[in-house]
From TrEMBL:
Residues 314-790 form the Glycosyl hydrolase family domain. One of its GO terms (molecular function) is hydrolase activity. PANTHER family: PEPTIDE N-GLYCANASE PNGASE -RELATED (PTHR12143), SECRETED PROTEIN (PTHR12143:SF39). This is GH92 family glycosyl hydrolase. It comes from Streptomyces hokutonensis. InterPro entries: 6-hairpin_glycosidase_sf, GH-type_carb-bd, GH92_a_mannosidase_put, GH92_N, Glyco_hydro_92, PNGase. Residues 1-35 form the signal peptide. Keywords: Hydrolase, Signal. SUPFAM superfamilies: Six-hairpin glycosidases.
Amino acid sequence: MRHQLLGTARRFGVGFAAAVVTTALAAAAPFPALAAATGAPGELSSLVDPLIGSSNGGNTYPGATLPGGMIAWSPTSTTGDQTSTGAANGYEYGATRIRGLSLTHVNGAGCNPGAAGDVPIMPFVGDVTSSPSADTKDAVYASNFSHADEKATPGRYTLGLASGATADLAVSKRAGVADFTFPADRPAGLLFRVSNSLNGSADAHVDIDTVHRKVTGWVLAGAFCGRRANGGVNNRKSYYRLYFSASFDRAFSSVGTWHDSTVSPGSTTASGGEGYATGADRAGRGSGGWVGFDTTADNDVHMRLGISYVSLDGAETNLRQEIAPHARVADVAKASARAWDRELSTVRLDGGTPSRRQTFYTALYHALMQPNLISDTDGRYWGMDQAVHRLARGQRAQYSNFSGWDQYRAQIQLLALLEPTVAGDFAQSLYNFAQQNGGVWDRWVHISGATHVMTGDPSAATLATFYAMGVRNFDYKGAFDSLVHQATVPDPDELSDAGCPGQCVGQRPNLAQYMSSHYAAQDACHCWGGAAETLEDAVADSALGQWAKLLGRDEEAKDFEARGAYWRNVFNPATGYIQARNLDGSWVSPFNPASDLGFAQGSAAAYVWMVPQDVRGLAEAMGGRETAATRLDAFFHTADGAWSVRGGDALRYDPTNEPDIHAPWLYNSLGQPWKTQATVRQILDTSYGTGPKGLPGNDDLGTMSAWYVLSALGIYPRTPGSAGLLLGAPLFPKAVLDRPGRTDIVITAPDADDTHPYVDGVRLNGRDLTRSWTGAALTLKGGRLDFRLATEPNTTWATDPEGLPN
């Protein structure tokens, strides 16, 4: 044990056929011995491929960033429309033309464009003779590239362009350095496209200081998901200003600026935003500046850059504090690799194939990219009330980028498990935002903005889970009281349809009706979908109830436990599915299990399983565990028994989105854990992998990657608000979870390989475990899980009805 948190000395960031069911029990065998070696953490960053997930809708980005970093320096691609990009976060592997290298990104967001992509800086070969903003098709001030000329490693990104220019970037947490090279026989320069954030901008500004060889400026932006049809107009608003300061090692040979279609050679200042529209409604608008260089004798340009959400001075201070004055790209890249090595060594693996190790450590890399810093080195940050704040005593960083509807299901559990101090600072950060936002906890926070994206109350589930998993470095009593208030006291915004259906402003829509009817009425809920809202709120309330119990708040625990069962009010016995209801109690019809009516980004067939807090109750409602298990079989298989776990069928499992990602683990609660083992292994092997298509869909701020990490370790969160873990079959012979300030968790499975996907037995701290789950003690106190794996399913282990989870 050697850890503290982000920003300290420790680290910068911190088909199975029907016959399988009846296979005879494999003969019990002793647990095999395993060598004590646990791998070499110093080489872990070399196993990461940041390009995994950059195609197939994964929406990851390959650029330079650190664990939890503020800066994420990565390409903005173009497909011939200056107001759009190849993918949600500016980069799609198949789009091999870029218009700049942008300073900020969000990992795996689902709407296109997603967020950020601020201040694209474009190495340009040629004379600037027209306004880059007037280049609406990205025909002139952009360049093609080949993946053969691209290299991405943790903390460093290098790209050669067809124009002959190259860029080599490396970063710290809030700053970066770059080497740009240009052909010696042509004009060379850098375009600072200050207004051209992924979603546009309200305003932007650039200043060029020829005496001090500096370019500074800012962009006023926001509007996450601001272009989507469902609620986009409501969300086209600004909520942060990103400042940057770039300095150079050589003088400028030329300068100029532009605004809209006007280009002004020799000018050193310009302003103007693009707005938040799209296509022709925005094309041709914006501002920026350029600096040119004489490359006849020296074709290399070195740049140092800092960013801040507080001020220009904050950007320059961040740069001074984090990167030495004469540090080169190689120096910063070396430090970046060390930071990622420390972060990735929180899980040390033995064995496994090279491709599985690469898939695993890249997933861990993506999972621990967030939360992201928004506080400066001096502790100041821009709050949700659009004012400057300073970290309170005891809080070490203010974090943001909370994709709550996604993350509460897997990513936040992994964060609490591996980085509890960061988790606590994140919890405090969300509480700070709520206090600055009139007591409202927004479900999707981007930088300092409440975006309202998605549905439910994921903050309640998130903070309850943090507390259950032992996170204590936040004001948990104040946060609990605030979340209880949000769940029990109606707010005027909850009766608004602004932003609906995708970005409804009410965080507990029509709460008074919900508390009266005990479900969200489809025709009166002011929400995305009444059935989904009911399920989400029931999960959140169950988590609050568990938290209340841990705090000794017995009456609140009882009340919220009862509310956790409200899912029953949208389960229609006549159809056997979760179904939306109207205010008068009637079921919304006609009903089709493949339809998303009443749901959010999923069908009734997917959402029927979203009752992780009461799987026993759900099974009873379906007619018993055997009936429920048979239905679950059909969720993962076609009628002929073939696997169906890749998505694309509304009646079956979809690994690309969150509502049903826990479904493979439900067999543990249904008394058939061997089916969890087989199903999870099938998904791990077919939906995930190496290469740009290695993620099944949007990474959603590390959620899909966290699912892989946890599942590959043979563990998965039991339910939000709990520290318990469900058990599966590990992919690797040994894993050591080296946790800050806590005892390690050691997981061994000596026979782990492609031919041993089943669990034959488990020992917890040396004692035989006859359940397919653990209680809180392993998470809180550490310990050892030893798995005996088998080639055939053990259909008697962990099947006692008295020992089933939930």
